[in-house]
Amino acid sequence: MTKNFLKIIILSVFVFFSCSKEDSFDEISVDASQKDPLTAQQVNAQIDEAIATKGSFSWKNASNHLLWSASFRGNHIITIGFGNSATDFDRSKSTDNAKTQASILNLIAHYEGKSKEEVLLSSDAYLNLVDVYIEKQETIIALRKTAKIRYVEPGDYKYFETAQQKVSLTESSSSGSSGCGFESSTLSTSDYTTITPGAKVPWSFYQHNIPTAWNTATGRGITIGIIDTGVSPNQTLLGSNFNDGLSTGRTIQKYGTYVDSIWPWSTGTDGPNDQCGHGTSMSSVAAAPRNDNGLPVGVAYNSNLIVYRAASNVVLDGYHEQNGVKNAFTALANNTSVKIISMSMGHIFSSGKIEDGVKYAYSKGKLIFCAGGTSTSFTNFVGVIFPAWMAETIAVTGVKEGTSNQKCDVCHSGGKIEFTVQM
């Protein structure tokens, strides 16, 4: 009886100290000079300075005060990537991701003085990341000191909106801001050649020997995934007439992952229809049919096409656009029929959740092309944009016709570029 009683006491003491150690949290103080958040203009100024002096900006190198200030100006949303290492992004390959996530939420709940349910906005089904609400700088400091945290980033800070400039990374091809526009123009007869059964071939296709390549392959049996602003329902050649002329036996699928809402907790997407024009253009270049309507033909005119409306425009600024792109990458990654993913959108600095989505797709064997960027305003001093600079993507930019790879006037360039197109 005495021995059993002693065992109970020892066990109770062990459990008490174990729980105390697990639930213990450091006391964190914030310097008085950093208790007030920076203005949005001050946040942008520090980002601009980093890009100008170092060539790039990353939230990983940001101070606690800068990171917290950006989250304060962005609906208090923080994105947390976790894992046992920098490459531990895939939930299916992490044996302890549920325990790690619970521990992170427990820490946040403690410092915020709220329940775990109150601080959790979303938990990704495929990636080791969560979006949470954080109001206190102390919470961010504690998280950045915690093991198994890959990154802590503002989840809804809108750099371009803050600067009051809807800067386009591809505005050279559109009259609208942020790469949008539905304008049309009359083509000069010197800019195209008509081929059977009546389709137009752009002059640039011949510069890259694409018509010659059609003798070998036209895209048949290949499925291309486009992540962009969707496809216009008014373009029948990317709809009911996707099989037209010499393009036969293929399919086009359209999905929407973009949530058009100012509220971060909203989850209803606005569908697959392009309200910008950019996605329709990119889809046409990739896979428009070899038609008999006198309209331009796509590069892979017999390929299947899956198009995601993942953002409202090409500048991936803010929670819903970055979330939409991340969700499109994971969906295409998990689609075994998809061989190629193309995205002509981006940002001047990285997003951890998009980076995870790209890596996830790459790990599934996808060939990923991303635009190196084009702009005509103050972002033209930036080199290759994100995510084109990632090792998992093929970065594409434009060069002037008839030159030895001299970049076009509005094209971004740099050592990360791997493929060029004459423009």
List the helices and strands and how they pair.
Layout: H1 2-22, H2 40-54, H3 64-72, E1 77-82, H4 97-112, H5 116-119, E2 120-123, E3 129-133, H6 137-144, E4 149-154, H7 159-162, E5 192-195, E6 199-202, H8 203-207, H9 210-213, E7 223-228, E8 252-256, H10 278-287, E9 304-309, H11 319-333, E10 338-343, H12 352-363, E11 367-371, E12 394-399, E13 417-422
Parallel strand pairs: 7-9, 7-10, 8-9, 10-11, 11-12, 12-13
Antiparallel strand pairs: 1-3, 1-4, 2-3, 5-6
Overall, the morphology is: elongated
Low-confidence residue ranges: 5-22, 165-177
Reading the helices and strands in chain order gives HHHEHHEEHEHEEHHEEHEHEHEEE
Task: Kindly estimate the percentage of residues that lie in beta strands according to DSSP.
Answer: 15-25%
Written overview of the protein:
The structure is a single chain. The chain has 423 residues and is an alpha/beta fold. The protein is 29% helix and 16% strand. The chain has helices at residues 2-22, 40-54, 64-72, 97-112, 116-119, 137-144, 159-162, 203-207, 210-213, 278-287, 319-333, 352-363; strands spanning 77-82, 120-123, 129-133, 149-154, 192-195, 199-202, 223-228, 252-256, 304-309, 338-343, 367-371, 394-399, 417-422. The strands form three sheets. It has a seven-stranded parallel beta sheet, with helices on both faces. The chain has a four-stranded antiparallel beta sheet with strand order 2-3-1-4. Helix 11 (319-333) runs parallel beside helix 12 (352-363). The longest helix is centred in the first third of the chain and has 21 residues, at 2-22. The N and C termini lie far apart (89 Å). Mean pLDDT is 90; it is low at 5-22 and 165-177.
